[in-house]
Predict the structure of PIG-L family deacetylase.
Amino acid sequence: MLKQAVGASLVNNSMRLPFRSLTSQEPVLVVAPHPDDETLGCGGAIALLRLHNCPVSVLVISDGTQSHPRSRKYPAPVLQQLRQQETLDALTTLGVDQSAVTFLRLPDGAVSTLATLAQHQAECGAYLKAIAPKTIFLPWRHDPHPDHRATWQLVHSAITYLRFTPRLIEYPIWDWDSEQSVSLPNSAQITGWRLDIKAVVSLKQRAIAAYRSQITDLIDDDPEGFRLTPEMLANFTRPWEVYFEEIK
């Protein structure tokens, strides 16, 4: 358990976390707040599951158009299409068929509004009923980014549409950024573990490279545009991934 790690960030002591295996032949869903979070946080898990022919679906919540809001070369509709294609390319590399990827296209940066959450709860619930995932990967509930926290909330509310309770596995993204990571009260309710992805880490790195709009100067006409730094990317190209689960 991570009781000794909380109080700062749950990823602080990640090197001390135990390794666990991950095998399943039952449907798995990976939920991404933005196009790229699924690959950054869970790319290794996705690749391993697909190597064992586990059915994996991916639900991308926001349209990702706020990464470069002032670009004239890539206005919002063009950027949305670009980021969707990057996602499809990345997931193809990881072994996920394009037909298993769904884009909800909520407004980037506004997923956390109550109106948005209420409006799309039923839509997400119907989606969950259709694919009936036995395991759901979703963003860490305390991620510093409000869209990530709202995605966790949206998925949790939509789970009520299922007749069973799936296993929920949470993955950190912005908690890896020391300038954004949040302090938490001590708790024994969350356990943390690592997944060994050495066998597929090269696939994950290739998949991350598909997100040229986020890691290169492809979009060069927005001085304030978003770009993942090499330091931040290094957290996602290790031969292991970090996950959290709530102890019931």
Notes: Residues 118 and 128 are 16 Å apart (CA to CA). The longest strand covers residues 56-62. Residues 1-8 have pLDDT under 50 and may be disordered. DSSP finds seven helices and eight strands in the chain.
